Amino acid sequence: SRSIFLGDGSSVQNNVDFEDISFFTVSGKVTYKDTNVPVENVTILIDGEVALGADNSVVRTDAEGDYEINVPIGNHYLSVEKVGHTFYEGYFPPLDDQSVVTFHEFTEDLTVNFTDSTTVKLAGRLVGGTREAEKTIGFGLSTNNIGTATLSFDLQNGAYGLPTASVVTDAYSGEYEIHLIPEQFIISGITTSAGYTIDASELSVLDLRNSLDEITVLEDAEDTTSAKYSYHHQLNFVFRENPVILVYDENDQDFTGDNVFTYTDQATGDQVEIDLSGAGFPYPIFEMGNRYEANVYVVETYRNPGHPDGAIVDNVPVEGADVTIVDNLAIDPTDGNTGKTDVDGYFAYDFTAGIPSIATDNNGMSFTKTFEVSATVDGIGVDWNNGEVFRAYVLGTKPQEGTGFVTYGPDQVDFVLRDPPGSNSYAYIEKGSSYSTTEGWGLSSTSNTGLDRFVSTGLDVTVGGGAVGPVAETDNVNVSQLGMTLTRSYDYSGNYTETYTFNERIETSSDPEDVGSMADLYVGKATNVFVSKTNNIRLVDRDYAISNLPVEDYLDFGANVVIAKLEGFAVDNNGTPTYFIYSQKFIIEELIPELLTLRDDLLRNRPGKYESHLDYSSPYYGLNNDHPGLIDAETEILAAYPGATSSNLSYTFTPTGEEE
Description:
Strands 27, 30, 31, 33, 34, 35, 36, 39, 46, 47, 48 and 49 form a twelve-stranded mixed sheet that branches. Strands 1, 4, 7, 10 and 11 form a five-stranded mixed sheet that branches. The protein has 660 residues and is mainly beta. The protein contains five helices and 51 strands.
């Protein structure tokens, strides 16, 4: 080097090169603390002002975290910044003990590196099903229902040698938290201690570059004073099992029909109670006319045998599943058998058991009927019992086609409102009063082989012998012209009850000419009864069945009782009665004479249809052939009237058309 003088008299020097040392080049790298991982897009500042490059653009670190700037000669300080980031060494020279900037005299080129200390708190949980996954994070509110696992996170760009970051999920809640640099990570496949696996191919790249804002949640969202938890990014690992269908009875026990059943001993007529759980039948038993509940749940089932509090079987409900039930056990297979599960994965269904099956086969399914449940979840179909059809026996009565007949009942008085003695006196039933009558149906037992001692009552039987099953419900009949409402109901023991509720005040006559019994009011009805021959599926003593029934008519599983097909009768007294309120005076003076006139017209003026075997003067004239008085006088009548027979003591009826 040499010295050159520039001044007065020497203002020009030729062939001399100069080096501008008015600024110096400073370069370096920005990396995350304790790593070699570069930080991209970090802005470089000189004396608090952004550094500009040759093209007057802001200088930022490149993909490798490198930068280069020109710093003027003299005293300056450098710093770095990036939105959301915190720098452990973000100033050159470092801040003093009071966090005040200090200056460096730049007289030469330098290398200055900076360190980014930013981390992201990643929080989440590893659980089975959405119920646990949706609980507020950070407070241990979820249940670990699939076991613990080690979660491993590897930097997507593996060139910088960052070690794998790992965390073990909590044994109680399945929660975890881990601090990672705000970059992109690959998550390794997961296998829990309970054997649940999530393949790495099912997991997306975890991008934390924009997860820099802190999120704070409350343990109780409605209580601002409750505990708080903060994190930057939530990532749940939720294992999803295929849904399954569970069906329980009204006590949330297995759906298996009746546990205890009372049957009639065919030999003695005694009622015998049997515990069905030990009877050895391959299928459950239901009884016709009884009401049953089938509580349907669509769930995802998860198991964690190693939970610290003991083995867990967790049925996570599936809301909104479309449920379809095909119920061939029911009296009406289409009644209320579709719908959606609620928030608890629950669909309520109940039914009345209908008529039994009398069909037999060689595959062990004789006398059985089916009950199927299916559901659709997010377009995926699932069947109860993995598609294995649920079968059961229905014990009850099935009318035989074409065996029905009608008996015509006489007027029947249900009750009498007695008029008190004395003129101008009367009795009354106040408006709103109710009175009930109950009648039961039965059949005199015989020792006929294969005849069921039990008589079904309350069947809704149609003319021609068809039947849709038992009626065990209530209906209301408004008899408005009589000022009353009638409620009719059956119970499952064959009792038929009618309850009269009077909508108007009913009273006997106060007419002085109608005193005492002549003013009594008779309230009642005329009834018709339909009777049908039936095939019954019953429990029968095994010894009785072996001795009295064809082998094809019973199922023997080696228990004390068998399931057998027997013949019997069904009675339907739920016709449409004609109701009346008559005074005794009206009955004696008008009604009976009118009925006698109608009777005499039939017997005298209908040749070829009705033929009386008795003289008009006979005390038995016009009585029904089954009248008890006729039966008692059978010998006398047969001797006096040659045209009479044992079955037609009073008259012979000859039908003249199909309807008769």
